[in-house]
Amino acid sequence: MIIPKNFLYLFVFFVIAVTGGTLKADNDSFERDRNRMVRTQIQARGIRDRATLDAMRNVPRHLYVPAVQRRYAYQDRPLPIGYGQTISQPYIVAYMTEIIRPEPGHKVLEIGTGSGYQAAILAEIIDQVYTIEIIGALGRQARQKLEAQYDNVHVKIADGYYGWEEHAPFDAIVVTAAAEYIPPPLVEQLKEGGRMIIPVGSPFQMQQLMLVEKQSDGTFTTRSLMPVRFVPFERE
Q: What is the spatial distance between Cα 76 and Cα 104, in angstroms, rounded to a whole number?
């Protein structure tokens, strides 16, 4: 049987459209969305650290939200991820990353793994990320996702109030849930000269994003950076 040439062209076009071509188009779309996010939501608001910007461009945020939320992944807002938790607004993730001054040789502790997105951003920049999640189901999901992509991320399911003492001291600590006060164990596990970023305030109200800096004599200073609204710091 002779197949018309035009039919062959249509068939090849159809195969590309329903397989690799479509996937590539989707990937290109997400990449465009991600680059636009960095340009309009993050750089436009003053984030300048190149490593932070590169990480925000590289990590596919849509893979760290539930499938039903993926169309909103690169919008300028937090998104629900289940269990009463959220993935933070992209600008806040970038701001908290830049403010701790991450460097390749650093070891950073994160409290509140959530979907794993903040840990992935840190993993793009630093040597070792230790992250703690108190909600078991979220912690297991994040561990599976992060360990499939990174060999420098370590996930623990526990009460983050106590930190991760066996791996202390940390060059920086990132807390992604609002505590009513700064947990003393976290200050103790912060390296001298280290920085901690933490939202402080009452649950379900406006809180203050605080920068904690540990001095050489073991004391620490705090500075209020901006009003924020985070989910509560959960305890066992």
A: 28
* Distance, CA of 149 to CA of 102 (rounded, Å): 20
This prediction's pTM: 0.87
Six-digit token string for 66: 């539930």
State which residues form the domain around 44.
5-228
Q: Which of 29, 88, 115, 202 is catalytic?
A: 88
Query: Considering Cα of 46, then 51, then 52, then 57, what sign does the dihedral take?
Result: positive
The whole-number pLDDT of residue 19 equals: 35
Q: Is 235 inside any structural domain? A: no
Count CA atoms within 13 Å of residue 46 on its CB side: 4
At 203 the pLDDT is: 81
Q: Is 202 among the catalytic positions?
A: no
Number of domains into which the chain is organized: 1
Q: H helices within 59-155, ranges in order?
A: 90-99, 117-123, 136-149
**13-27, 36-50, 107-121, 189-203: segment of lowest average pLDDT:** 13-27
Strand partners, 172: 108, 195
Q: Is the pLDDT of residue 45 over 70?
A: yes
